[in-house]
């Protein structure tokens, strides 16, 4: 009897230790990522790439509730000593919704209009994203180890690292998309638990059960609405994830004994999903414009005042002429907002001005044309440069090459697992890839950049992790198989970490000799 009690206590002790590890492991990786991202965050003391837009817009939102106009020499005045902030009350036309700039404004509220102030919020979200991916990987693969591997891979990805250290919008959007994906995974597990419990009680659970309010699915809709309120590419991701959750509902009902799973899903789940996902996203998106709506000075804010209430000639989402329809019942501020969106759509879809670092989506997975966000040539004898030919200081938005090239093979493996084995985990990863990457192929003529793919990074890391998990071998395989698989997977992870360390000077604008800079330019397209 005493021996049995001791045995049970030992089992409980092991379970407690494992339960602690499922948080301590992810937290450890997240702390590692946070230290990397926060270290020397104010450097360089400059406006990096599109920081010339968003931090100033964020400050304007903080002061006025809408984006104002800045003079041409505003950057020099803001970075000067003493600082001068030449914000004008005149409205400025901006091409992106305001939520991402409100997030940047949080840091500026506490630390002012300085590089640390406009980067800190993005850096925190980028670090938290690593923690989220560890937990998402654990839930997806049912392994804390694999979850931590996925998080470690993202912690050492150069693109996610760079985009977490600059005051741009894409890292913020990536945070909301990943958080929404995690919420949908939790919703899937809880829905399956409800269906299994109903089936155990008898009856055709798959056909009859009403699942009621699903808070995690609603949370996903809120987060995807936030992603849309940062940049419009969140709209395609919302559509893909809505389809994904409906397919999961259909499969769950079929597994729970539904005779007509598709019909049951359409009858019981379609409209609740539309309301909780699309409906909540729409509400969040409109609320994100509250500063513009609550004030009167924003660009186009009073466009509808005194007008007859006719709709725009065409919608901002579909480039098709529409008949003029009376919309006088819609409040004037909302009609003005709709008109503003038509102008934003024209700008975003018609942007074709050539840029030296623009690239085609076909080259993004292999990192064919990374974006140089900051460049300075440092003469010998200045800022620690001891090279006779001078030094370079650069921020290059380059994904860690070994990680991205490995991901190309991993995506092929994941596609195989989904198509031939019907692996739902592979389907979830591919849905993330489809929503974040594939829509860009319709903009072949538009000026677009590879750093948009920071939203894709978590799903690439999950794909690589699934492939590494397959290398380890299934449970019950011979120990020698496990050892060889672990050695191979470990070498891949070490190679990726080492590759990140090698390119780290190019991610942080470190002053390095020109010879070392040239050694890291593996392809002429990177220059």
Can you give a write-up of this model?
The protein is mainly alpha-helical and 527 residues long. 61% of the residues lie in helices and 3% in strands. It has 20 helices and 3 strands. A 3-stranded antiparallel β-sheet has the order 1-2-3. α1 runs parallel beside α6, α5 packs antiparallel against α6 and α11 packs across α12. The chain is globular, with a radius of gyration of 25 Å. The termini are far apart. The N terminus is likely disordered. InterPro entries: ArnT-like_N (IPR003342), PMT-like (IPR027005), PMT_4TMC (IPR032421). Belongs to the glycosyltransferase 39 family. Keywords: Cell membrane, Glycosyltransferase, Membrane, Transferase, Transmembrane, Transmembrane helix.
Give the distance, in angstroms, between the N- and C-terminal Cα atoms.
73 Å
How much beta, percentage-wise? under 5%
Low-confidence stretches: 1-16
Overall number of strands: 3
Structural shape: globular
Query: Biggest β-sheet: count, sense, barrel?
Result: 3 strands, antiparallel
Strand order of the largest sheet: 1-2-3
Radius of gyration (Å): 25 Å
Order of helices and strands: HHHHHHHHHHHHHHHEEHHHHEH
Structural class: mainly alpha
Number of helices: 20
Give the overall average pLDDT.
90
Q: Share of helix among residues?
A: 55-70%
